[in-house]
Design brief:
Helices cover about 80% and strands about 0% of the residues. By secondary structure, it is mostly helical.
């Protein structure tokens, strides 16, 4: 029984093309995640700095503003990095900004809850010693502190999620 040499080479070309396509799609996914993570960290730093300055302004002194700025940059970069990775995995290139917004809100609130729980009581009590009504309300108990951080990082996560997924979105071309 003889085999047609032309059919074997065509089969090998198809297998080679499929292998190249699979390898290319994995490379694109890794590059998309890495690129999104760096972009999300930058957005998180900028937005976190702005949110930190606004939150630090509640203390009505320069030290509070600078501490808010510093904490905003650190938490913003970390949150932006994590949210961008999650959004890049969930939304990919076909998810769109709405998937990024909802994923960023949900995971941002979870991260904010975790960070709020990690704040020591000594910091909460020192904020209450300033005798500023708004800070007294925010730091009255652990629940208020956790809710405050969850809210702030929910906003930050939503911003990062929308930008990252909007940048990655590639609409499918419809034929016909």
């Amino acid at each position: 029984m003889t085999k047609n040499a032309l059919s074997i080479s065509k089969r090998n070309e198809r297998a080679w093309a499929q292998a190249q396509e699979i390898a290319h799609s994995k490379t694109v996914e890794v590059d998309l995640t890495r690129q999104s993570a760096m972009f999300g960290a930058i957005i998180g730093e900028v937005a976190g700095a702005l949110i930190g300055i606004a939150t630090g302004a509640l203390t009505m002194n320069l030290t509070g503003i600078l501490m808010g700025f510093t904490a905003g940059i650190l938490l913003g970069a970390l949150t932006g990095f994590i949210i961008a990775i999650i959004v890049a995995r969930l939304a990919g290139t076909s998810g769109g900004p709405s998937i990024g917004a909802f994923a960023g809100m949900g995971f941002g609130a979870l991260l904010g809850t975790a960070f709020g729980l990690l704040i020591p009581d000594s910091i909460r009590m020192s904020a209450g010693a300033l005798q500023i009504t708004l800070l007294n309300v925010i730091t009255a108990s652990r629940f208020e502190t956790v809710a405050f951080f969850a809210f702030l990082l929910c906003i930050l996560g939503c911003m990062v999620g929308v930008w990252v997924s909007g940048k990655n979105y590639r609409p499918e071309k419809k034929i016909g």
